[in-house]
Amino acid sequence: MARxxxxxxxxxxCIALCSRQRPQLLRRCLASLDQLVIPEDIAxxxxxxxxxxxxxxxxxxxxxxxxxPLTHVSEPRAGLVYARNKILDTVAKMQVDxxxxxxxxxxxxxQWLVHMVAAIREFPDTKVFVGDWRRQVxxxxxxxxxxxxxxxxxxxGALLREAVSGNTAIDASVFxxxxxxxxxxxxxxxxxxxxxxxxxxxxxxxGKIRFVSGARTEEDIHDTRTSLKARLxxxxxxxxxxxxxxxxxxSAIFAWGWTLxxxxxxxxxxxxxLILAGVALPFRERxxxxxxxxxxxxxxxxxxxxxxxxxxxxxxxxxIDGN
Length: 323
Hints:
- The chain is an alpha/beta fold and about 325 residues long.
- The protein contains 8 helices and 11 strands.
- Helix 2 links the parallel strand 4 and strand 5.
């Protein structure tokens, strides 16, 4: 970690992540954290919560413990929510000012902390910041496959309506018992979407979430997520989770209104894109296939909503991607 000279108000910052049986990805993530530029007057530590009954990371953490101020904590109960809440409990006891949240499959840009700290100081009314999370798609994926989340083309300080658990900075008062006391909800343990629900809880208490354009992380999309079937399932899961969160945290009128709006819009735009694809295919094949991919994405959204209302409970994070 390299230091950057500048006199500002001192802050303490714990960068935390959880990991389960993915030693190669963890090693790569920690190597990127070792290259972070640290602003002057920022005290930085790193926390790794290993979500496993027995430790598989001792050698890795011993190696990086020589170059990083590293703490290793175990959470034997399997599941994202158990692991993330262990992070919150541990960081709360550390008495730091801020927690940085990253995922074990991310590579963190060297200037990540510089940009996060600058945003924290520029926007003192905000307790949650989200950075620019970029996903690297393998080159052999067909061009017309539905896109997943694209990088946000927003300026630093732009207000957001949802948060993620990777690439975030969270004021410790958000999860300390003496503050908001927020925790991740066990209903999302293997489902995913616990970060979306956490963000809704925070916003409902009057909090603000702001984007930080320079705080970049990169993630390689794993092979198991690159097929057409896997991509459409991710789109369906995203909308399943949104439906669940809205019914859980919002009024019934709001939740049903959101559902009907998404269903109507997705059905209409799905049909329009299918028609455009069919008409244009003989003349502009590439453009037509992209329209076809967009149509599939809209129908995948509808499927996800029907999954929720039919009582389906897909646990997408019970299996482990990557190594």
